[in-house]
Amino acid sequence: MDFFIFLTIFSYVLLVTKAHEPNNPSYGRVFPGIRYPFQIQDEQPHHSVHPDFELFFRQNRTYIHFPTYGDLIVKSISYNTRKLNLIDPKNCVPEVFLNLNLSHTPFSYYYVLKDYTYINCSSHLSTSFVQVPCLSGLDHHVYIVETSISPPVSCNSVKTVAIPFSYSPYLSDNSFGLSLTWNLTGECDDAGIGCQSETLLHNKGLFHVANDKVIGLIAFIFLVVTLFYAKMALYKVFDLVKEKEKLGEIKFGKILGEYEALNPATDSKSDIKVVIH
């Protein structure tokens, strides 16, 4: 009986665990350090998190997509300081600064911005100007200068943008200055339900998780109590059967005694009569 109860409880636990697994082949995959407001693509309902915070994996690297530029690699995320450190897979951060438009996203540059002008020149400039190699070619040379500097005659202004840093060959790599921060407070979700703060959305998610655990615990307790009473009922049935068997033996013995009293056993010797002729 105890083994039956243990087997039933163990099977129930397995069923509950299986029922809570997401119905997709990626279940069990570990995404260390990624939490709200970021999400992994196709791992959560899209209405629960702002779509701009969706991350995805490709070739063992984590990416985030910006429509005005493309895909950037996520180097690290600091949730305390709200700092998203990115890497340009094309290894040309000045190109990211030139084309990345964050005005319609919850992101902004982490560092203080300053206006710089990109200029495109048909010939090399003096050594006081530093060429951007990843944007230049054999017949064109791109430089980033402060807006207070008038471009030479051989150069055309391409675009003036507010960026964290100008180009420097000593500090230039595929991640220098490419750090963003975010602000979701008061943002409306894409389902149109209403504007909620980041903390409220996060607590709402925690509530659903806690609610599922409470329901599972209540169901488990109900099952244990049910099995306990079922066990007690079975014991009562067994005791009743045994009691009936005992009563049956007593009645049988009583009937047998009464029968023997009505039909006493005779001594064979006393029944023999001796006749003398």
From TrEMBL:
Annotated pathway: Protein modification; protein ubiquitination
Regions that span the bilayer: 214-234
EC number(s) per entry: 2.3.2.27
Any one GO MF annotation of this record: ubiquitin protein ligase activity
Compartment(s): Membrane
Residue ranges constituting the Wall-associated receptor kinase galacturonan-binding domain according to the UniProt record: 32-88
Main location group: membrane
Enzyme class, first EC level, given as a word: transferase
Keyword Kinase: no
Cross-referenced PANTHER family: RING-TYPE E3 UBIQUITIN TRANSFERASE, RING/U-BOX SUPERFAMILY PROTEIN
Annotated protein name in UniProt: RING-type E3 ubiquitin transferase
Organism of derivation: Forsythia ovata
